[in-house]
Amino acid sequence: MAKSKNHTTHNQSRKWHRNGIKKPRSQRYESLKGVDPKFLRNMLFAKKHNKKGLKKMQANNAKAMSARAEAIKALVKPKVVKPKMPKGPGCKLSRLAFIAHPKLGKKIRKYMAKGHRLLPTKAQGSNQAQAPKGAKAP
């Protein structure tokens, strides 16, 4: 039995794109001698116009990417410093600050209105405090 080779050169020219074993440049493409001239003209025309299409596509892609970048910039807003709520006895000021707050404004208005509805009015509280326990109202 003949010893088999590890590497063969048989039929490698057809597979030059796979194995890195390339044909010489002169043999790389089939000869176009004797080919129909009309077909040749069409082929060269198509080749030229395919390149045009590719260039257009690349230009469109670049435009689309720049437009996308601008859209993302517009959407991503810079971080705003959060307004701090005042703490302490200044009730009126804190109410105003809460109302002016971008996120808490709506909720706090509703909450404060509910609180005002539930609280007894000052007039009712003062009348009850003045009247003695055993006396009846006239």
UniProtKB/TrEMBL annotation:
Q: Which residues form the signal peptide?
A: none
Composition skew (Basic residues), residue ranges: 1-26
**Subcellular location field:** Cytoplasm
One GO biological process this protein is involved in is: cytoplasmic translation
Taken from the record, one Pfam family name reads: Ribosomal_L29e
The UniProt annotation puts the region (Disordered) at 1-33, 115-138
Say where the protein is mainly found. cytoplasm
GO cellular-component term (any): cytosolic large ribosomal subunit
The alphabetized UniProt keywords are: Acetylation, Cytoplasm, Methylation, Phosphoprotein, Ribonucleoprotein, Ribosomal protein
Keyword Zinc appears in the UniProt entry: no
What GO molecular function annotations does the UniProt record carry, in alphabetical order? structural constituent of ribosome
Domain of life assignment: Eukaryota
Q: Does the keyword Acetylation apply?
A: yes
InterPro entries xref list: Ribosomal_eL29
Its biological purpose is as follows:
Component of the large ribosomal subunit. The ribosome is a large ribonucleoprotein complex responsible for the synthesis of proteins in the cell.
Similarity annotation: Belongs to the eukaryotic ribosomal protein eL29 family.
Assembly notes: Component of the large ribosomal subunit.
Q: Under what name is this protein listed?
A: 60S ribosomal protein L29
Record organism? Phodopus roborovskii
